[in-house]
């Protein structure tokens, strides 16, 4: 395998959404406070939103979410998302070789993205590629990463050169990794009806120009083709609604409740937009989604794991990083 040799010191930052530090109410409240105060996530007027956030949502949602996090927390004391992101970084670093310093940064929580970037500069990184771990672009995820990266150096005199890897929703190696992961869960995917469940987004964001929904559709179609699924054998859905305004449809939970009534009693769900298993996949889909489907009359339910630290996924991101580091690195 070829390795990369550097010009000046090069950094690669894997940017992830984030996770609470612990599955307790105070840690979850800190995480949700930072997350839900981001204007890219909730763009309501601050005079309206912040009193509601601090007075109602955080006091009520934090303990409920903490209880759910405790169900999925790892015995080694870290969240699944943090565990798999660390392993992903280690695997990519091994593939890129000593010419690239690989680190992780969380948009919300620790290690904070800005802190990670400034630490890389302090270590001598003059050029940094930021790779958001969101295959499909959204203003609420990718754009927020860009905002935070620029804000990290807003008061600095010496700035590194930053690059941002583009969305990779149709990258063949990513689709291949998804298909391999799904086949590891269901040897014959054609034997089940599939839901490809992506994180939701307000419909208004899409109407205002966010390309997220279109990119999700492309990913789902390519994945279905790679798996050999007929058009009647799968649907694209969106999960994790928040708030009262209309969100993208169809809603995953609503569809799981309806499918048995349509005669579909054996279902499998994959979450192609999530780089690593987290609360939204391990609890919302694998636990709550399963219960919803079975209670409605379904007979069997399979949750396909996320890409996590699979070799094909690490290889796909290393390939993407090499491409985006072109001109900064040479192959030896």
Number of helix segments? 12
CATH class of the largest domain, named Alpha Beta
Supply the number of structural domains: 2
What pattern of helices and strands is seen along the backbone?
EEHHHEHEHEHEHHEHEHHEHE
Give the arrangement of secondary structure elements.
Blueprint (H helix, E strand, L loop, with lengths): L3 E3 L3 E9 L6 H12 L9 H27 L7 H17 L3 E9 L4 H10 L4 E6 L9 H11 L8 E4 L7 H14 L7 E7 L3 H5 L4 H16 L6 E6 L12 H7 L7 E5 L8 H4 L1 H12 L4 E4 L7 H14 L4 E3 L1
Parallel strand pairs: 2-3, 2-4, 4-5, 6-7, 6-8, 8-9
Antiparallel strand pairs: 1-10
Helix pairs in contact: 1-2, 3-12, 4-5, 6-8, 6-12, 9-11
Describe, in plain words, how this protein is organized in 3D.
- This protein has 12 helices and 10 strands.
- It is α/β, with parallel strands linked by helices.
- The protein folds into 2 domains: 4-167 and 311-331, Rossmann fold; 172-303, Rossmann fold.
- Helix 3 (80-96) crosses helix 12, helix 4 (113-122) packs across helix 5 (142-152) and helix 6 packs across helix 8.
- The mean pLDDT is 95.
Short description:
By secondary structure, this protein is an alpha/beta fold. Helix content is 45%, strand content 17%.
Features of the shown structure:
globular, Rossmann fold
């Amino acid at each position: 395998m070829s390795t990369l040799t550097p010009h000046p010191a090069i950094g690669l930052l894997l940017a992830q959404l984030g996770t609470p530090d612990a599955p307790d109410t105070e840690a979850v409240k800190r995480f949700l406070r930072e997350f839900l105060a981001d204007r890219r996530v909730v763009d309501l007027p601050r005079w309206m939103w912040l009193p509601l956030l601090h007075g109602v949502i955080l006091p009520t949602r934090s303990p409920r979410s903490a209880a759910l996090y405790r169900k999925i927390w790892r015995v080694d004391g870290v969240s699944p998302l943090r565990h798999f992101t660390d392993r992903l970084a280690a695997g990519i670093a091994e593939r890129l070789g000593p010419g690239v310093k690989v680190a992780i940064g969380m948009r919300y929580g620790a290690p904070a993205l800005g802190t990670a970037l400034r630490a890389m500069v302090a270590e001598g990184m003059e050029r940094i590629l930021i790779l958001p771990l969101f295959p499909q672009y959204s203003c609420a995820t990718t754009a927020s990463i860009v905002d935070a990266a620029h804000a990290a150096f807003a008061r600095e005199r010496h700035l590194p050169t930053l690059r941002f890897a583009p969305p990779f929703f149709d990258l063949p190696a990513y689709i291949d990794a998804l298909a391999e992961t799904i086949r590891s869960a269901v040897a014959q995917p054609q034997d089940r009806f599939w839901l490809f469940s992506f994180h939701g987004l307000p419909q208004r964001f899409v109407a205002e120009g966010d390309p997220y929904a279109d990119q999700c559709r492309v990913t789902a179609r390519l994945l279905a083709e790679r798996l050999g699924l007929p058009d009647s054998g799968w649907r694209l859905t969106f999960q994790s609604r928040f708030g009262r305004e209309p969100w993208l449809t169809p809603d995953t939970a609503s569809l799981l409740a309806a499918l048995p009534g349509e005669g579909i009693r054996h279902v499998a769900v994959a979450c192609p937009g999530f780089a690593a298993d987290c609360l939204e996949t391990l609890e919302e889909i694998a636990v709550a989604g399963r219960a919803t489907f079975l209670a409605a009359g379904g007979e069997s339910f399979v949750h396909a794991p996320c890409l996590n630290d699979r070799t094909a996924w690490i290889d796909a991101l290393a390939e993407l990083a090499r491409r985006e580091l072109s001109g900064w690195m040479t192959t030896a």
